[in-house]
Amino acid sequence: MSGISREHRESISNGPLLPTIDELKRIDTSTAEFQELQLPRIDGLRRTDTGLSDLSSLNDDKASNTGSAFPLYLAPDLDDFETGDEEPDRGNWTGKFDFLLSLLGYSVGLGNVWRFPYLVYNNGGGAFLLPFIVMMLVAGLPLMFMELAFGQYASLGPIAIYEKFSPLFHGLGYGMVIISSVVCLYYNMIIAWSLFYLFASWSAILPWEQCHPRWSTENCYSFKDADECKDSNGTYFHRVCYNQSAAVFVPNLTALAADGSQRRLPAEQYFDNEVLGRSHGIDEMGEMKWQLVVSLFGAWFIVFLCLSKGVQTSGKVVYFTALFPYLVLVILFFRGITLPGAMDGIKWYVIPDWSRLTTAKVWGDAAVQIFFALSPAWGGLITLSSYNKFHNNCYKDALIVAVSNVLTSIFAGFVIFSVIGFLAHELDKQVGDVIEQGRNMF
Q: Any residues with CB less than 8 A from the CB of 84 and at least 6 apart, and which?
């Protein structure tokens, strides 16, 4: 057959490889040899290097000159290529916003609400925002876009994609899966704590409002009990309300009660002693708490239900799981700013200590926080984008999620620091002296 080399003629008959545009233009479609040639259909044309615009122009040219059926068979209408964008074997997101909300829910989480305010607290207040935004632009957003494009192009998970991409880096995929598995273990434990508090709060009086003798120490300080004791002209000290006659038997009672340095909130001791049952060290294992076991089982069961049918179920669940936390943050924000002392905490948050920017630790913490916030190099971005359609605009998705992530972190800072200001007011301490450890932010 004139116009096509022998090698290309054999490859066309045996596989999906297309001839070049120059060879196509030299084909004589009137020969019987061409009619016997099995040319590839649409599936063979997908994701090849042949220009679709050239095929379209070739279609018009051949149709007008020869009237042959060849152009319609080889180069269908361009709209047909969009309908062939799905991955039937792997599946795709079923809704327009399924992927975007899944990506938002995957990126925005405890790292924004818990870890970011703690780093701001330890790194000069508002001054931490500058290195955080710089690291997002320099490292976070480019890495996020790269992984989204990588997974979307190949439609493979992290293990398979590195095996296909370069067997030398095959271990990277396994490393990502291992890291994500470890993170799932302790993140699900935090969800179990949330379920524990959810059911524990179903009572007229919250159990952490007062210092219960079963789990509190003598340094536990209940503001509710202290106010009631004050109303009766008593002195509240070490969980006991002393009236005026009993106060004379405790030396320096008034001075001891006024000293707030040893006070511990009932919510803190409830978490340490009742929820966790913390021991004195790793050598003392303690016993299993059945309430947490049931809560942890419930957390894993919820995960199973969300993933039972793949992206068809998880893509719908994210409409709640990705948006509901924003509603909670808004409610907590308006509640927090109405508390006494809230403005002191917010001022501490927004007024920067620029001298901290000269230390490498601040910039290092900002870089690490970006990996917690946007979650690149963990395998999740590759997995989520692998269910995208081939022509999805993942750059726009990456930009939306990255900006939303930063704004969520900043907004969560206002929520947390309004509560910290309230704690400083109640404990009669400076804002910078309230929180001793990151876990106590809650």
A: 42, 43, 46
Cβ–Cβ under 8 Å, residues 103 and 401? yes
**Number of Cα atoms under 13 Å in the Cβ half of residue 148:** 29
4 pLDDT exceeds 60?
no
- What is the rounded end-to-end Cα distance, in angstroms, of the chain? 77
Q: Residue 269: which of 221, 225, 227 has the closest Cα?
A: 221
Q: How far apart are CA 419 and CA 344, in angstroms?
A: 10
Residue 24 identity (one-letter amino acid): L
Separation between Cα atoms, residue 51 and residue 379, nearest integer Å: 32
Query: What is d(CA 152, CA 156) in angstroms, rounded to the nearest whole number?
Result: 8
Three-class SS of the chain:
CCCCCHHHHHHHHHCCCCCCHHHHHCCCCCCHHHHHCCCCCHHHHCCCCCCHHHHHHHHHHHHHHCCCCHHHHHCCCHHHHHHCCCCCCCCCCCCCCHHHHHHHHHHCCHHHHHHHHHHHHHCCHHHHHHHHHHHHHHHHHHHHHHHHHHHHHHCCCHHHHHHHHCHHHHHHHHHHHHHHHHHHHHHHHHHHHHHHHHHHCCCCCCCCCCCCCCCCCCCECCHHHHHHHHHCCCEEECCEEECHHHHCCCCCHHHHHHCCCCCECHHHHHHHHHHHCCCCCCCCCCCCCHHHHHHHHHHHHHHHHHHCCCHHHHHHHHHHHCCHHHHHHHHHHHHHCCCCCHHHHHHHHHCCCHHHHHCHHHHHHHHHHHHHHHCCCCCHHHHHHCCCCCCCCHHHHHHHHHHHHHHHHHHHHHHHHHHHHHHHHHHCCCHHHCCCCHHHHC
What is the average pLDDT score of the chain?
79
> Which positions ≥6 away from 318 have C-beta within 8 Å?
98, 101, 102, 104, 105
The tens digit of pLDDT for each residue in 274-308 reads: 998 888 888 887 788 899 999 999 999 999 998 88
Burial (CB count within 10 angstroms: exposed 0-12, middle 13-18, buried 19+), residue 249 = exposed
- Confidence band of 331 (pLDDT split at 50, 70, 90): very high
Name the pLDDT band for 41 (thresholds 50, 70, 90).
very low
Query: Which residues on neighbouring strands pair with residue 220, listed in sequence order?
Result: 264
What is the predicted pLDDT for the residue at 71? 42
